[in-house]
Specification:
heterodimer, A: mainly alpha, 3 helical TM bundles of succinate and fumarate reductases, 74% helix, B: alpha+beta, Fumarate Reductase Iron-sulfur Protein, Chain B, domain 2, 5-stranded mixed beta sheet, two-stranded antiparallel ribbon, 8 helices, elongated
């Protein structure tokens, strides 16, 4: 416990907190995507999956609270690090600063993170709480279960919703591609031997997550999934 | 060659600075960047002005004293060299060149282009050493060290502590410097007894000096005149994490 508290006291410790929570959230994004891919199998499969997730309130709320804790830790630590990084920079900036070979993704982590936070709130209000389109969320299927499939299809037939999701996924891609490389570095697992492998993994992960997450709203908008 | 120079002038640590523009004449292409500034200072002195203050010592790229940001890039952007090894032939005749000091809260400007880098000395004092009983020098081969380890330690030990990594980092992080010291000492058997306390102490000291955290942009390694790789930061992170889990404190 004492050791864990020590991690929150130094910059390197906070980066480790960012890395561990980031890895867990990356894992959630992957599992979430795999689960949602069942929309391409059909209405019954997706609704059955949604029903299964909600069948055990203890597990459901345990998972939700766990995720909320991880997200909060990630955000609070990020704010603390960003603030001290800004202080470290000092008052005067360079006349014409160079990026010195850094990638765009690595420089906009705070901005991309904020877009993702806004997106998560919208996404929850849209498809979990159901306050944005209450009539979509009220749909029931043949078994009398909540018709998740119908709700998703109706929601993504609206062009601006699809636009918002796709733009958010671009930023999520930026965030995760740099995040995966950086977390291995923060955990001290990156060296010249594994570096190129980790960079490739980050690229493959980014493309797969972007393509997979965009496939759902875009194929609905194009009428491929009805 | 002729150049228009936009140089940061600041009369003292607490004073506010500003850019001043100078025309440098009679510059030869073979001159180093610092020799060009020497010529400019002669011209300024003759015309009765205050010469531009800047740090320099060995002028052969090994002491880590010169510290100029040229056109927004620490050491001027020529790969693997300090600014004293940058020659005027790398610039176009008549070009405008912006010259600034390292900018970081932990490196306050003392005068013009001279910054106070004693924060690095205090980081070294916190853990950049090994504790040994001195005596007769041991035989060179008495302590076998594998080639890979020796090379990793040598590469890290190439760090001259100039601070370009801090100057280039958007967070003014000193992680490349600290990582180089930790990798250099922790890779070798002589550094092993204090491996974890060294990593923890250096991190605590770095935070105390007001350096930022690493966001792995890679800007530090890109400008490093000794081309220290990002791996050293990973090594520092690992030794710090293991140290904390072992209950080591600063």
């Amino acid at each position: 416990m004492k050791a864990l508290a020590a991690f929150f006291r130094t910059s390197v410790g906070k980066k480790l907190v960012m890395a561990v929570t980031g890895l867990l959230l990356y894992g959630f994004v992957v599992v979430h995507l795999i689960g949602n891919m069942q929309i391409f199998i059909g209405r019954e499969t997706l609704n059955g999956y949604a029903h299964f997730l909600k069948s055990e309130p203890f597990i459901l709320w345990g998972a939700r609270l766990g995720l909320l804790t991880i997200v909060c830790l990630h955000i609070v630590t990020a704010i603390s690090l960003s603030a001290s990084n800004r202080r470290a920079r000092g008052a005067t900036s360079y006349d014409n600063p160079s990026h010195n070979g850094s990638t765009l993704a690595s420089r906009i982590m705070l901005a991309s993170g904020l877009v993702i936070l806004f997106f998560i709130v919208f996404h929850l209000l849209h498809l979990t709480v159901g306050v944005i389109f209450p009539d979509h969320s009220a749909l029931k299927d043949d078994k009398g279960h909540h018709d998740v499939y119908g709700m998703v299809v109706k929601g993504f037939q609206i062009w601006w919703v699809v636009g918002l999701y796709v733009v958010s996924m671009v930023l999520l891609g930026f965030h995760l591609s740099h995040g995966l490389q950086a977390l291995f570095q923060s955990l001290g697992l990156k060296n010249s031997k594994y570096s190129s492998l980790i960079d490739k993994l980050a690229l493959v992960g980014w493309v797969a997550i972007f393509a997979g997450n965009c496939a759902i709203p875009v194929s609905i908008l194009l009428g491929l999934v009805k | 060659m002729k150049f228009t120079l936009k140089i940061w002038r600041q009369s003292g640590p607490e004073k506010s600075g500003h850019f001043e523009t100078y025309e440098a004449h009679d510059i030869q292409a073979e001159m180093s960047f610092l020799e060009m500034l020497d010529v400019l200072n002669e011209q300024i002195t003759i015309s009765g002005g205050q010469p531009v203050n800047f740090d320099s010592d060995c002028r052969e790229g090994i002491c880590g004293m010169c510290s100029l940001v040229v056109n927004g890039i620490p050491h001027g952007g020529q790969k693997g060299t300090t600014v004293c090894q940058l020659h005027m032939r790398s610039f176009a005749d008549g070009q405008t060149i912006t010259i600034e000091p390292w900018r970081a809260k932990a490196f306050p400007v003392l005068k013009d282009l001279v910054v106070d880098r004693s924060a690095f000395d205090r980081i070294i004092q916190s853990g950049g050493y090994i504790s040994v009983n001195t005596g007769g020098a041991p035989d060179a081969n008495a302590l076998p060290i594998s080639k890979d380890q020796a090379e990793m330690a040598f590469d890290a030990a190439a760090c001259i502590g100039c601070g370009a990594c801090v100057a280039a980092c958007k967070n003014s992080s000193a992680m490349l410097f600290a990582g180089a010291k930790v990798t250099h000492l922790n890779t070798l058997p002589q550094g092993h007894p204090e491996k974890y306390s060294r990593a923890v102490s250096i991190v605590v000291s770095m935070d105390k000096e007001g350096f930022g955290a690493c966001t792995v942009t890679g800007a530090c390694a890109a400008v490093c005149p000794k081309e220290i790789p990002l791996d050293v930061i990973s090594k520092l992170n690992r030794d710090y994490a293991v140290g904390i889990l072992k209950g080591v404190s600063a």
